[in-house]
Amino acid sequence: MQLSKQAMSRIALFVVFTTAFTGTLFSQATPKLVAFAPLLANPQVYLGQTVALHGFVDQSGAAIGGFKLIEAKLSGTHAKDQVASVRATWANGAKVVSVPNGQEAVAIGQIQIEDKAPILHVANLITDKDAIRRFIRPSQRKPRPGDNLGHDAQPSNSISD
């Protein structure tokens, strides 16, 4: 069976459209978790991208229209002046949440640059500890009852036993 050129071009167009749409859909599903050091070193790379930053809220207040996000160091201790931070403001249309200073969070938003410094325009702020853990380490999950079924049983040596 031979397809006409018109039918083949329709199929090709459909494949291209589907691939482009699916790629765009999945690329926006989960923003990339970015470390503070590369973001601060070269913010132009992240300009306009939707990213996630894991840190602790500092200097939160309605008067400043946002907060400062201090890098969460998972190991080691550093003096406060050595800890990296990024200014965060609420994006237009985002649900503004009152967050206390010291609150651990994952801030998701777009990077913009103002006075050569990156600013995160926050669209979503995750503050639930379990949600933060799942976001930071998505492959790890808590064991559930029944996860080990069959693994504790000792197999018999023969089928007739």
Describe this structure in words.
This protein is of the alpha/beta class. The chain is 23% helix and 29% strand. The chain contains three helices and six strands; from the N terminus they run αβαβββββα. The chain has helices at 5-27, 36-41, 129-136; strands at 32-33, 50-61, 66-71, 85-90, 104-114, 117-126. A hairpin with a 4-residue loop joins strand 2 and strand 3 (66-71). Mean pLDDT is 75; it is low at 15-28.
Give the SSE map.
Blueprint: H1 5-27, E1 32-33, H2 36-41, E2 50-61, E3 66-71, E4 85-90, E5 104-114, E6 117-126, H3 129-136
Parallel strand pairs: 1-2, 4-6
Antiparallel strand pairs: 2-3, 2-5, 3-4, 5-6
CATH H-level name of the largest domain... which superfamily? Answer: Nucleic acid-binding proteins
Global Rg: 24 Å
Could you say which overall geometry the principal axes of the C-alpha atoms support? extended
The CATH class label of the largest domain is Mainly Beta
Average pLDDT reading: 75
Strand proportion, as a percent range, falls in 25-35%
CATH architecture of the largest domain: Beta Barrel
How many angstroms does the end-to-end distance come to?
Answer: 59 Å
- What is the number of strand segments? 6
Sum up the structure in keywords:
161 residues; OB fold (Dihydrolipoamide Acetyltransferase, E2P); five-stranded mixed β-barrel; 3 helices; 6 strands
